[in-house]
Task: inverse folding
């Protein structure tokens, strides 16, 4: 089975929601990966749409990049609605 | 338990002060219930232990299809046959979720399966017992899947993210297994002939002790428990889980109108738990060593399945290559 490719599987659970990563399957090609993902991850109506992507094609952040990548957003409280204090008379905004 | 006796490679547990900075940060994350993800730093022994535990767990799901497969062509009605096939398909799925989680640790699926087939990797001792009558399908669902649920529910909170997520999927599906098993037995006890009722009691007599052994040796005999619990890849001791299983199962047994083959079983008001007799651990260790009633047959069936399916896998690759060439030419 090592000659088969590892594919990551993404499923859209209901119309209107994003595809979400659910796991992986081995398959000879993408078409077979979709069939295998159907059998493995949607036996109980879990999905309305499936994406498969060869695992080797995914570029991901490295764990040691966590600080340089994500720290800059930590001190920008003014990006959140709750930062702005308005008088009660304004009501819901 | 589906993974019994997982070696952790730990001789003496380290305190936080004895750890290097990376290991300390890792242990502090675990203590704070933050999940470890595939790309995070982790100690070598954590990775190796998890590969052993998850692969054992996956092998158990895969080998666990075989005792049930014995009854697909013998199921008493079409309804029971469809239910049994759905359950067996779930077991295959559970094995695959787990192999998939294991691969995120850098393990190779084929290599781990080869270890199973050559007898170097373990799987749960329970699947080395034969399934002799139809009531065994009920008893397996009720007792074996029941014991598996008790073991797997806490593993949903295990420290390794992909393992935890696989367990959440598995647990969602397991309760169907247990309920269908119990319903088979209940139906036989309420509507069956005397011979059918006797089959139920016979199945329970044979599977009761092996089900209790699924949780693994008692705490005093589990040298790896402390490290596994510190890493939160195990969340309760074997004895705690075994007691929990017995306490929840005995009322269900009474509702069936059956008994278990244990003269020492009785409710202990003071402890608030059932007391039970001594487990024959020599039998457990013999089965684990490969000397159970069905060990050889199970592994032979697995090896044949892989060998007989080789041409299908080769054909699938040839077909995929051909299609790729046609697309490139078009």
Result:
């Amino acid at each position: 089975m090592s000659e088969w490719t590892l594919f990551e599987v993404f499923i859209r659970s209901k119309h209107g929601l994003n595809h979400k990563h659910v796991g992986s399957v081995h398959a000879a090609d993408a078409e077979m990966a979709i069939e295998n993902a159907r059998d493995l991850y949607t036996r109980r109506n879990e999905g309305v749409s499936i994406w498969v992507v060869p695992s080797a094609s995914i570029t991901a952040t490295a764990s040691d990049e966590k600080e340089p990548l994500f720290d800059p957003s930590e001190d920008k409280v003014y990006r959140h609605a709750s930062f702005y204090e308005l008088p009660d008379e304004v009501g819901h905004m | 338990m589906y993974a019994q006796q997982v070696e952790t490679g730990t001789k003496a547990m380290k305190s936080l002060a004895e750890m290097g900075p990376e290991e300390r940060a890792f242990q502090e994350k675990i203590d704070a219930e933050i999940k470890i993800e595939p790309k995070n730093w982790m100690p070598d022994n954590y990775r190796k232990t998890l590969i052993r535990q998850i692969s054992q767990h996956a092998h158990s799901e895969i080998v666990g299809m075989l005792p049930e497969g014995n009854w697909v062509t013998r199921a008493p009605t079409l309804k029971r046959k469809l239910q049994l096939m759905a359950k067996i398909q779930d077991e295959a799925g559970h094995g695959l979720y787990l192999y998939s989680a294991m691969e995120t640790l850098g393990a190779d699926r084929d290599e781990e399966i080869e270890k199973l087939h050559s007898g170097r990797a373990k799987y749960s001792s329970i699947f080395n017992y034969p399934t002799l009558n139809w009531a065994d399908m009920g008893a397996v669902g009720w007792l074996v899947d029941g014991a598996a649920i008790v073991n797997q529910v806490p593993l949903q909170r295990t420290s390794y993210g992909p393992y935890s997520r696989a367990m959440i999927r598995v647990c969602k599906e397991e309760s169907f297994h247990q309920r269908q098993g119990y319903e088979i037995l209940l139906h036989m006890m309420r509507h069956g002939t005397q011979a059918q009722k006797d089959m139920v009691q016979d199945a329970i007599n044979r599977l009761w002790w092996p089900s209790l052994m699924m949780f693994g040796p008692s705490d005093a005999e589990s040298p790896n428990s402390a490290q596994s619990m510190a890493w939160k890849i195990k969340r309760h001791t074997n004895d705690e889980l075994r007691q929990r299983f017995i306490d929840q199962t005995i009322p269900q047994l009474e509702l069936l109108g059956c008994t278990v083959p244990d003269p020492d079983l009785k409710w202990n008001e003071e402890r608030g738990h059932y007391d039970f007799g001594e487990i024959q651990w020599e039998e457990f260790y013999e089965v684990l060593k490969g000397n159970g009633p069905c060990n050889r047959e199970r592994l032979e069936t697995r090896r044949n399945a892989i060998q007989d399916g080789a041409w299908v896998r080769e054909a699938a690759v040839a077909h995929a290559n051909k299609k790729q060439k046609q697309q490139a030419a078009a």
